[in-house]
């Protein structure tokens, strides 16, 4: 059953701010006493019969009511799939048992204050609705009906939901796309990473039905960028965040291989490198960062890579197999690439200016323990030095010369010496940018220009848990949340960011997870065994 609701608003109550660029009012927004209100598309099925196809439904008794204490979770089997059964405050809830991000078993996660947090990467789900409330990941969890009869707990679930273990929130579609002027959009999103995609999806989830255009310099639709260094032989379609059909279904237009050269805030226009111009009503800048290149002699030699695209990662794996690899920079990217190539390459050498990897971020002791793990996996370190020259033979890389005088054989070189925000095109725009090139935003992800928002790796924002200190947090999880907050505030929800930063890395089967923002620590308190890499480190001041 499809129910269509049209709201007709008296002409005088329409606000100019809510007009779409082609002069039609955005149909799902109206104003009451000067505040914007939004119709939310109802995403919960009608309660009397939530399952349309009776053959798709399974009902099973899963336990006795006394089998679970308050605050406990249990994975239960319904015969054709599993569910997560939860008891909190005397009530039972049932939902999907796997995190939609990478499939982690949620029963091993943490249940707290009505939310389950994933044990692997910290995504968080509301037990009452199944909705995702902290990231990474895009989908929510399916919820299942629970009933109690004669002291027994029964779960009624859709077989399909038990199989897929994920639920995409209901979204609006664009009304009458055919009426649009090609060179104007209501919302323009520059950048198609996690922040840009989550912004677009959140707008549709909240019932926004006007035009949304995303543009990206990449040739691919949004993909899972952390996998470029963690799983280097992944192909673009394997790591796509959403399939092509998704963007068609929800009318999210993506312009690939399109670079914005300037933003004219006075005329609300983005100017592209090829001269094309696009007007916008609201703008999100989520351009991420640009990797720093080496400045040494021979830097233009072939087979030297910054890993920016799936093609870069695939090419490095191909060139490195059974050959000599030099990695410059013991950054997260550099170390993950070293770990990935260690088994595949003939040799892996890592060059770094500091004395220990991750010293500034994880401290010297943790850094040394990680370094030891790498050395036991045949990775050779050249610390406190840098590259002075890249030497070639017939145009291709042959040797990497260090300032210490050491010469390393190299068939391929990966550069991971940090990055700078990709904000050069905003220099003359009037948008506030700090001395390092980061876009300055408030807790609502708004810049100093009304209607212009920014998100992701290219921003500094006030971090609630550090007394609103302005910080740059280039984490995948944080980019998702920035995108969500920006979208809600484009719709005038007045939502502030209060998320705890979270990041993970995986090397040689060991996973390091980091929560918080330890910048400026002067003491590290370690519990557990560093040598065995079974420890917790607290960064304190």
Automatic annotation (TrEMBL):
Keywords, comma-separated and alphabetical: 2Fe-2S, FAD, Flavoprotein, Iron, Iron-sulfur, Metal-binding, Oxidoreductase
Residue stretches making up the Rieske domain: 60-155
PROSITE patterns noted in UniProt: RIESKE (PS51296)
GO MF term set: 2 iron, 2 sulfur cluster binding; metal ion binding; oxidoreductase activity, acting on NAD(P)H
CDD domains: Rieske_AIFL_N (cd03478)
Annotated GO CC locations: mitochondrion
SUPFAM superfamilies xrefs: FAD/NAD(P)-binding domain (SSF51905), FAD/NAD-linked reductases, dimerisation (C-terminal) domain (SSF55424), ISP domain (SSF50022)
Highest taxon in the source lineage: Eukaryota
Example GO biological process: execution phase of apoptosis
Family: Belongs to the FAD-dependent oxidoreductase family.
Name of the protein described by the UniProt record: AIFM3 factor
Source organism per UniProt: Ciccaba nigrolineata
């Amino acid at each position: 059953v499809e129910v269509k609701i049209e709201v007709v608003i008296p002409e005088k109550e329409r606000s100019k701010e809510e007009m779409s660029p082609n002069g039609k009012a955005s149909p799902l927004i109206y104003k009451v006493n000067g505040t914007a209100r939004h119709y939310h598309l109802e995403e919960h099925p009608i309660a009397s019969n939530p399952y349309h196809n009776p053959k798709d439904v399974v009902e099973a008794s899963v336990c006795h009511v006394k089998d679970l204490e308050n605050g406990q979770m249990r994975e239960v089997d319904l015969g054709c799939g599993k569910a997560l059964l939860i008891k909190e405050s005397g009530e039972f809830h049932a939902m999907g048992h796997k995190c939609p991000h990478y499939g982690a078993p949620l029963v091993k996660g943490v249940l707290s204050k009505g939310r389950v947090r994933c044990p692997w990467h910290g995504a968080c789900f509301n037990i009452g609705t199944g909705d995702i409330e902290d990231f990474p990941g895009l989908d929510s969890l399916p919820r299942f009906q629970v009933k109690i009869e004669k002291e027994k707990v029964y779960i009624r679930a859709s077989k399909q939901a038990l199989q897929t273990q994920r639920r995409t929130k209901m979204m609006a579609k664009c009304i009458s796309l055919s009426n649009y002027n090609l060179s104007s959009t209501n919302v323009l999103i520059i950048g198609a990473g996690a922040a840009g995609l989550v912004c677009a999806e959140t707008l549709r989830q909240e019932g926004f039905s006007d035009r949304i255009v995303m543009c990206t310099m990449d040739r691919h639709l949004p993909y899972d960028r952390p996998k470029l260094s963690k799983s280097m032989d992944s192909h673009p379609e394997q790591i796509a965040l959403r399939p092509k059909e998704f963007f068609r279904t929800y009318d999210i237009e993506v312009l690939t291989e399109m670079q914005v050269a300037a933003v004219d805030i006075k005329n609300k226009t983005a100017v592209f490198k090829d001269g094309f111009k696009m007007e916008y009503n609201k703008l999100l800048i989520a351009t991420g960062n640009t990797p720093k290149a080496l400045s040494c002699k021979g830097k233009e030699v072939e087979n030297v890579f910054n890993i920016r695209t799936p093609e870069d990662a695939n090419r490095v794996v191909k060139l490195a197999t059974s050959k000599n690899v030099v990695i410059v920079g013991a950054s997260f990217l550099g170390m993950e690439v070293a770990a990935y190539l260690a088994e595949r390459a003939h040799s892996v050498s890592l060059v770094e200016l500091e004395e220990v990897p991750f010293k500034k971020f994880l401290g010297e002791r943790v850094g040394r323990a990680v370094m030891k793990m790498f050395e036991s996996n045949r990775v050779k370190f050249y610390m406190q030095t840098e590259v002075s020259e890249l030497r070639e033979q017939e145009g291709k890389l042959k040797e990497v010369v260090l300032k210490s005088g050491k010469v390393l054989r190299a068939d391929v070189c990966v550069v991971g010496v940090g990055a700078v925000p990709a904000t050069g095109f905003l220099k003359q725009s009037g948008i506030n940018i700090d001395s390092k090139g980061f876009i300055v935003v408030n807790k609502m992800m708004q810049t100093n220009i009304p209607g212009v928002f920014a998100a992701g790796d290219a921003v500094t924002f006030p971090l609630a848990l550090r007394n609103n200190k302005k910080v740059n947090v280039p984490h995948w999880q944080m980019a998702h949340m920035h995108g969500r907050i920006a979208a809600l505030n484009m719709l005038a929800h007045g939502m502030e960011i209060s998320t705890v930063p979270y990041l993970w890395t995986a090397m040689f089967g060991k996973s390091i997870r980091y929560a918080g923002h330890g910048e400026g620590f002067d003491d590290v308190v370690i519990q557990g065994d560093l040598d065995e890499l079974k420890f917790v480190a607290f960064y304190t001041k």
